[in-house]
Amino acid sequence: MTHTRPTVETAYRQVTAPLLDELDYRIEQIDGQLPKDLRGTLYRIGPGKHQVGRSLLHNVFDGDGMISQFVLDGTSIRFRNRYVRTRHFQHGQRSDRIRYRGVGDQITGGPLANIGRLPENVANTNIVNYDGGLLALWELGNPYRIDPDTLDTLGPTDFDGRLGFLGAFSAHPKRDPDTGDMYNFGLDLLPTPRIRTYRVDRSGRLHRLATVPMLDLPWNHDFALTSRYLVFVLDPILPNIAKIALATHSFIESLDFKPAKGTRFLLVPKDGGRARIVEHEALLHVHVTNAYDDGGDVVVELVRLDTEWTDFRRMTGMVNLDTPSTPQFPDSRLMQYRITPGGTVIERELADRSGEFPQYDWRRGTREHRYSYLAGAGGPAGVFNAVLKVDHHTSTVTSCELGDSSVGEPLFIPRTPDAAEDDGWLLALNHQLTENRSQLLILDARDPEHGPLATAWLDHHIPWGFHGTFTHRIAQPDTATPAL
């Protein structure tokens, strides 16, 4: 069989092409050797299709959420994928008509068809372990509960009515490794702009923490956690009220970057004390890695984007376009920001190689970590084609280069519960573009340059996605789903 190397024009279409089928099979082709001690279940999530029936959508944030499950038992890998049964997905099974507004896609009919409508929850951004099961997350609405064995959708949850007015629950909750509690936030535009913060205890009960009113509430995707604070880095990406109110533009087109406003570091005490705001020059970022307290200082690390907001925004809306252009992920740097008790912010560059989807050893959450792992920018698709490892102590970057590929977020799995930091594996889902098939890559985190220890080849591709989680619990996909 001959394979054709993808061109720049075709690669991004390959990466975002839909997977319409729901499959379940044992992976037959595995190159290399599976680590016998790597046992558990990997879950990945992202938009599986950007269409409603046969009507095409164009923004990466608007595709229906699809979960991929990889069950690893030490000797084999079983794959399964299922779509989250949101209202948006179910409508698309019956109709070609775009009925719901998206983040970047409008309902046909102009402003009158869109006015007063918020983007629809497509549950496509992150998946996390919760209360013996899973939550599929999206920015502006309720999480969806997912059966961890069958991947069946058990329905949305508002934590017994304890979420805010809009029910927003961010896609990036953080766990305190000492207590097991999960922290998160939600952005409320109505009835007044505010950031709501939450703690979910180990029994699954949600507790409201501080609510911080902000008249110029920015869009914010992520946050970090220390032993004392929820740490927000609020870039000046601000809603244009007139555009939003009149629905003349899509939601993402109604967000403007206002550099004169600067970036605000918001520190919200976990014990309910008064929030603190520290002003800084304007930054642009999407994801943070970790944060920790160092004496009286608070340290937070993130991927800083070296681009214009308008260019980044435009890059999100190029799915299903019949154009020779392709998005190019912007230059970026892994950065550290140290906030002193007096309000000084000290900036340090950790790595200058462009990448995104930063990860680390989750056991090091709320405390200093030495190694970060990222998807490295590059390749014909304009997204990511390398797995990067950054040593914070030496500022060295090592990598596993993947050629004509589109690789996702690398997750670190420790070899044993008490293994040293970096002693474990990196799991990454990679779309090999020449063969147009996806692979689960297993790398030794200590030496990614060596290449994969094992490569599990799927029979098909998985569309470009966002985030994932791992549990040492081995899923049983044939288990019956409990009644709703």
Radius of gyration: 21 Å
Structural class by helix and strand composition:
mainly beta
Mean pLDDT: 94
Describe the sheet with the most strands.
6 strands, antiparallel
- What percent of residues are in strands? 35-45%
* Percent range of helical residues: under 10%
Give unreliable regions as ranges. none
Enzyme class: oxidoreductase
Family: Belongs to the carotenoid oxygenase family.
EC number: 1.13.11.-
Keywords: Dioxygenase, Iron, Metal-binding, Oxidoreductase
Search tags:
484 residues; mainly beta; six-stranded antiparallel sheet; five-stranded antiparallel sheet; 5 helices; 35 strands; metal ion binding; oxidoreductase; iron
Structural notes for this entry:
InterPro entries: Carotenoid_Oase. GO terms for molecular function: carotenoid dioxygenase activity; metal ion binding. Keywords: Dioxygenase, Iron, Metal-binding, Oxidoreductase. Its EC number is 1.13.11.-. The protein has 484 residues and is mainly β. Helices cover 7% and strands 41% of the residues. The mean pLDDT is 94.
Chart the SSEs and their pairings.
Layout: H1 8-16, E1 24-26, E2 29-32, E3 39-49, E4 51-52, E5 55-56, E6 64-73, E7 77-83, H2 87-94, H3 111-114, E8 126-130, E9 133-137, E10 144-146, E11 153-156, E12 174-175, E13 182-188, E14 194-200, E15 206-213, E16 224-225, E17 229-234, E18 237-239, H4 241-246, E19 255-257, E20 263-269, E21 276-280, E22 285-294, E23 297-305, H5 309-315, E24 332-339, E25 345-351, E26 355-359, E27 371-377, E28 384-391, E29 396-401, E30 405-407, E31 411-414, E32 424-432, E33 437-444, E34 454-457, E35 467-471
Antiparallel strand pairs: 1-7, 2-34, 3-6, 3-35, 4-5, 6-7, 8-9, 9-10, 10-11, 12-13, 13-14, 14-15, 16-17, 17-20, 18-19, 20-21, 22-23, 23-24, 24-25, 26-27, 27-28, 28-29, 30-32, 31-32, 32-33, 33-34
